[in-house]
Amino acid sequence: MPRGDFTDIYDPGVEMPSLREKLTREAIILREPGSGFLYSNVGYHLLELLIEEVSGQSYAEYIRSEVLLPLGMNSAVYAPESGMDQYPPTGYNLAGEPVPVYVYPEKASGGLFATAGDIARFVVAGMTDNMVLNPKYVELMHTPESREIGIYSLVFDAYGLGCYLETLPNGLRSVSHGGQGKGIMTHYQSIPDTGSAIVVLTNSQRSWPFIASLLSDWARWQSIPSVGMGRIIWGQYGLSAVIGMLISASVLIVIRLVLNVKKVRQTGHTWLKAGIAVILLGTVIWCKSQSYLMISSVFPLLSQWLGGATVVLSAALLLSVLLPVLTGKGDRFL
């Protein structure tokens, strides 16, 4: 099943498509079931429909009565009301623009409104005996279903039934999952064998580097050298280095052109440079046209710098191609 469109949002109380209508458009088999891993919200929306058909209740009613209230998650709801004691805050998207509170037609993949304390109660329930979550099924959730998880393998080792898994440097197993919507970013991470966990909820879509820093500090507090999400910090260093190299290359090209403006000639590399510039510009334009890119989500500010540095390098390359023509030293190639 595909990821699903998490940007399809609605104001609370307005008319919106039904769950069936959304699934009719989005529930498309992309690969043979069982043939590989693909992160999918749509799969959970199908489970949502199944729960509603079997229970005869709405998903929100069923989960609240069977899971949320028994776990003590008393303020967790699927439909925010203006009179709530803790009404959800305004979120901020990748561009830093405000995103007022919204709802989805589907509830199972991202429709829950809950406090950090509520989510902490759920995480604790996954590490202790309780009357709600059967330990046998919790263990299944925490058992790897797939170790080939694509780009997520950069920070995690495997995916269980609904959560990411990793073996920490001290040999202990860690369970985690994050959430991302328009204007929000969340994450929890637990170590079942020690009973330690952390929950982070933010109202900004730029929060992954911040969350990674918090998790790294938490790991050190737990006497753990690092957690997988901490690699985002190293990714920031690497991306910063790439941006620095692109800008440096651009500056060197321009300086060379200025110092040798009278000697500039078109060479056999002219069309190669022009081709590279066009490809780079085309890549930037394509990226800007996408509604969602993983690199923009993980590195929201640095990705903008990367795009700008790429455009600058493209301009420098095109200038080095056009200058011989403008100075009249490229006629023999035209």
Concise structural overview:
With 334 residues, the chain is an alpha+beta fold. The protein has ten helices and seven strands.
Keywords:
334 residues; alpha+beta; five-stranded antiparallel sheet; 43% helix; globular
What's the layout of helices and strands?
Blueprint: H1 19-26, H2 42-55, H3 59-68, E1 91-92, E2 98-99, H4 116-125, H5 135-141, E3 158-159, E4 164-167, E5 173-181, E6 184-191, E7 196-202, H6 208-221, H7 231-259, H8 270-289, H9 294-298, H10 300-326
Antiparallel strand pairs: 1-2, 3-4, 4-5, 5-6, 6-7
Structure write-up:
There is one protein chain. The protein has 334 residues and is of the alpha+beta class. It is built from ten helices and seven strands. It has helices at 19-26, 42-55, 59-68, 116-125, 135-141, 208-221, 231-259, 270-289, 294-298, 300-326, and strands at residues 91-92, 98-99, 158-159, 164-167, 173-181, 184-191, 196-202. The protein has a five-stranded antiparallel beta sheet, with helices on both faces. A hairpin with a 5-residue loop joins strand 4 (164-167) and strand 5 (173-181). The relative contact order is 0.09.
